[in-house]
Design a protein that fits this description.
alpha/beta, Rossmann fold, five-stranded parallel sheet
C-alpha cells in the first residue's frame, strides 16, 4: 500500500497539497521548496535523499514550462528534467503536462509515468476554477456589470459549458460558438444563443466580452477586425492560445491571455481537486 510520497518542485498548489496529504496520513518528503514555510518538516537536501524509500514521486503541474527545467518556483535551484528522470529509476512518477520527450527519457529505465493533467476528473474540476477566474477578470477589466452584457464563449467543451452556466446565472446574455451540430443543439437546449463557427465573423461585433476556450487560433486578424474597439477578449487556451497576439495588439483591443487560472485564482481549492485526483490514482496503482 502506498504511504511514502516524494514531492519534487511545484507551485503553491503543491505546497497546499503536501499539507493535505500529511493530514491524510501519508509520509511526505520534499525537495526544491526552501522558500516554502508551510512544509518545513518535509524538506530534504537532495533529490536522492527525497526519493529514497518513496513509493511514488510527485512532480509539478506542469512539469516544465520550457521543456528543459522542472518548475520550481519555491526554489532558486534549477533542476533539469533529464536529471530528475535519471534519479527516480524504479519509481512511479506523477506530474502534469508531461511532454513526449520525458517518456522517451524513461524508456530504458524502470519508471512508470502518469500524467495527472490527462485525468478527466481533474480536468472537469479545474474547469470550475478556470471559469470563476475568467469571470473575475471580466469584472475587474470592464466598466460595466456582467448582468445584461453580451458575452460570447468560444468553444463548448468542459470549460465552455461551466463558464456559460456561470455567466448565465449572473444574468449575462450568453452566446456560445461551436462547430458540431450536437454542441449547437445542446447550447440551444441550455437557453444560450448558438453560433456556428461558419457564422462567427458576422456576429463578433455584437459582443462586449469574448472569452476563448479553444486551443488553436480562432480569432485571427481578419476576425479581430470585426470586434468592437471597446470589447474585452479573454483567452483561456494554453499555448498557442486562440487569439492572434500580434493582431490584437495592432488593433488595440483590450486583451488578457489568462493562463493557469486554477493555481492563481484558487490554489487551496485547486490543491483539493489535485488531492482527490491523486488519491484516485494511488488506489488504482495499489490495485494493479
Amino acid at each position: 500500500m502506498i504511504k511514502k510520497i516524494a514531492v519534487i518542485g511545484g507551485d503553491l498548489r503543491i505546497v497546499k497539497l503536501v499539507a493535505m496529504l500529511q493530514k491524510e496520513g501519508y509520509e511526505i518528503k520534499t525537495y526544491a521548496f526552501e522558500k516554502a514555510t508551510e512544509i518545513q518538516d518535509t524538506k530534504t537536501s537532495s533529490i536522492q535523499e527525497c526519493v529514497e524509500g518513496a513509493d511514488v514521486v510527485l512532480g509539478p503541474l506542469p512539469l516544465s514550462s520550457n521543456g528543459q527545467f522542472v518548475n520550481t518556483p519555491f526554489s532558486s535551484e534549477k533542476i533539469q528534467v533529464e536529471d530528475l528522470i535519471s534519479q527516480i529509476d524504479g519509481k512511479t512518477f506523477i506530474a502534469g503536462s508531461i511532454k513526449q520527450e520525458v517518456y522517451q527519457m524513461a524508456e530504458d529505465k524502470d519508471i512508470t509515468i502518469l500524467d495527472m493533467v490527462k485525468r478527466e476528473e481533474l480536468a472537469v474540476l479545474n474547469a470550475i476554477s478556470t471559469a470563476e477566474g475568467a469571470i473575475q477578470i471580466a469584472i475587474n477589466e470592464t466598466p460595466r456589470n456582467l448582468h445584461g452584457n453580451n458575452v460570447l464563449v468560444l468553444g463548448f467543451g468542459r470549460i465552455g459549458k461551466v463558464l456559460s452556466k456561470m455567466l448565465d446565472g449572473i444574468g449575462a446574455h450568453v452566446a456560445c460558438e461551436a462547430r458540431k451540430t450536437t454542441d449547437l443543439a445542446w447550447i440551444k437546449a441550455y437557453g444560450y444563443e448558438p453560433i456556428n463557427l461558419i457564422d462567427l465573423k458576422e456576429n463578433l461585433n455584437r459582443f462586449d466580452i469574448i472569452i476563448n476556450t479553444i486551443p488553436y487560433i480562432v480569432l485571427n486578424k481578419e476576425m479581430l477586425q470585426e470586434v468592437k474597439k471597446d470589447a474585452l477578449i479573454i483567452d483561456l487556451a494554453s499555448n498557442p492560445g486562440g487569439v492572434d497576439k500580434q493582431a490584437v495588439k495592432e488593433l488595440e483591443i483590450k486583451f488578457n491571455w489568462a493562463l493557469s487560472l486554477p493555481g492563481k485564482v484558487s490554489p487551496v481549492t485547486s490543491a483539493e481537486f489535485m488531492k482527490e485526483t491523486l488519491l484516485n490514482m494511488l488506489k488504482e496503482i495499489d490495485n494493479n
